């Protein structure tokens, strides 16, 4: 019994380690008070000010704190999403996906903000805005699940998520939403290198359902007022992608049947 439990926990060891670290750090910051928390967030932020000073350690440290102190609220959904990915892809690929999303989206957003400030499109104060959290890495992991989605549902999955992320990024007023769209896209692109022969058990479907809810919370949470537009747009895109795929499959089958008839 204990050996079986230990074996199951070992399969999601990265998820457990990261979740435990987040819980411990959040608890310590809660005990130390808001002033200490603000200083820690400011020190670990991957904003242009810190990156410009060569504080590259923020690229790692920023993944272990949240600016608003929402770690306890986000942790259950995050753990389910990461656990599912670790069961599907194993620990090494989970780390690869999370790191690509967190580092890649952070650096791309930073480069975009620097260019926008230099061109006068954004005020210099943006360079000092806090940018910490786990959302970039988590959304990249969500994107990699594309490889595990059955082929007939994959266009709907990609179309729905990408549309929702883009609508929030365009209609929202937070540059974090742009980072979310970038991270999700990086994860989807990375999924092209992943292969999954695992079956969708009820347990994994439950983790997927929670992961989807967590992903939606991440996307629309930065601009809640955009949710009434972004969510219907995502659903519409998913339905359109499903219809387009079915239409394409039907035409392909019809063409093959016609060729077979002519050959006969």
UniProtKB/TrEMBL annotation:
Highest taxon of the lineage: Bacteria
TM regions (residue ranges): 12-36, 56-85, 97-121, 133-149, 156-172, 178-194, 206-223
A Pfam cross-reference name: Rhomboid_2
Record InterPro entries: Rhomboid_2 (IPR046862)
Name of this protein: Transmembrane protein
Keyword vocabulary terms for this entry: Membrane, Transmembrane, Transmembrane helix
Membrane recorded as keyword: yes
